[in-house]
Amino acid sequence: MNISKHEQRVLHELALGGAIHYERYENGKIRDITCYTRDGHILTDCTLPVFLRLKKRRFIRSQSGRPYRASKLGIEAVRAQLNQR
User: Fold this and answer.
1) Helix, strand or coil for residue 43?
2) The pTM is what?
C-alpha cells in the first residue's frame, strides 16, 4: 500500500505508543490536532491533511472519545524502522 513519508512517520510513532489529541468545533468536526510521541514530544509531521488521510484509510482510530491511536491495519501497513534510541 502506498503511504507517504509523513504518513509513515506518524504511523510509526503511533505504533510505538504515541497518540493524536484533537479539538472539535461545535458541529463535531475536528479543527486542531496534536500528535504526541510516547515520550511526550510533539511530532510536527502530523498535520490535519495527514491525519484526515490516515483516518480515511482506517489506519488510526479512536474509542470512546479517547485520543487517536494506530489501528491493527495501521500497524500492519507501516514498514519496519529502526528505533532510534
Assistant:
1) strand
2) 0.87
